[in-house]
Amino acid sequence: MTRIIAGSAGSLTLAVPRSGTRPTSDRVREAIFSALESRDAIDGSAVLDLYAGSGALGLEAASRGAAEVVLVEKAKPAADVCRRNADAVGRAMRGAGPRIRVVVRGVASYLETASGGFDLVFIDPPYDLGEGALAHDLALLAPLLSRHAIVVVERSSRSPEPAWPEGIVPDRRRDYGETTLWWAERARALDTPAPDQPASGQPARPSQPE
Fold first, then answer.
1. Are 51 and 20 in contact (CB under 8 A)?
2. Staple partner for 111: which of 8, 85, 140, 208, CB 3.0–4.6 Å?
3. What percent of the chain has pLDDT over 70?
4. If 0-12 CB within 10 Å is exposed, 13-18 middle and 19+ buried, where does residue 146 land?
5. What pLDDT shows up at residue 192?
6. 56-109 confidence digits (pLDDT tens)
7. How far is 75 from 160, CA to CA, in rounded Å?
8. Are 168 and 137 in contact (CB under 8 A)?
9. How far apart are CA 169 and CA 198, in angstroms?
10. Do 116 and 147 form a contact (C-beta atoms < 8 A)?
11. CA separation for the pair 43, 64 (Å, rounded)
């Protein structure tokens, strides 16, 4: 059984697709959200849940105060489950919850056209997704992250570390049995102005002749 652990929709049971997905266990989700709340990273955030499956990760964030949640799932049966779960969370929160949107597209296709500004991103692809495909997803994601964004990638403990693109830097690894969580952040170097560019973002004035 999969359920919302805490927040305004806490204890709500979620539907799970009959096949083709691997729901994140309550233990792992609890560890994820405990760490996120300790960073004050959920309240008011824009959340992106890729390979959403049942939508449990994104909907947990919705229950705990996220401002906007996008669930991306290519398989129509799973996307239909996401919609039902999103509707159930909305009812449990009595209409006071965030905007929740379900996108029925492949992850790479969605990222190629998304507008960005995401504060919190969950990536829980099938374990058989190739490392090259995951690296491609991460490269497309990098320019869509907000300044203090956090990215959480869930993989098999037997999988190698993801190939992080320019713009995303690894933070830590946590193991939970057969599951490994890779935590990463938006690279701070992206916030550093170029040598001839002042911090205000205005063009540097040309030097005066002596």
1. no
2. 140
3. 89
4. middle
5. 54
6. 999 999 999 999 999 999 999 999 999 999 999 999 999 788 999 999 999 999
7. 26
8. no
9. 25
10. no
11. 7
Q: Is 1 helix (H, G, I), strand (E, B) or coil?
A: coil
Measure the CA–CA gap between 207 and 137, rounded to whole angstroms: 43
Cα dihedral 151, 152, 158, 163 in deg (nearest 10):
0
- The candidate with the shortest Cα–Cα distance to 145, out of 174, 167, 130, 126, is 167
The predicted pLDDT at position 190 comes to 60
Cα separations (Å) of 102 from 1, 49, 59, 69, 107? 22, 10, 11, 9, 12
Q: What DSSP character marks residue 41? A: -
Q: Rounded to an integer, what distance in angstroms lies between the CA atom of residue 129 and that of residue 132?
A: 8
Q: What is the pLDDT of residues 36-71, one digit of tens each?
A: 999 999 999 999 999 999 999 999 999 999 999 999
Place of tokens 């190629």: 112
**Strand-pair partners of 72:** 50, 103
Tokens of 69: 């949640």
Whether the model clears a pTM of 0.90, i.e. scores above it, the answer is: no
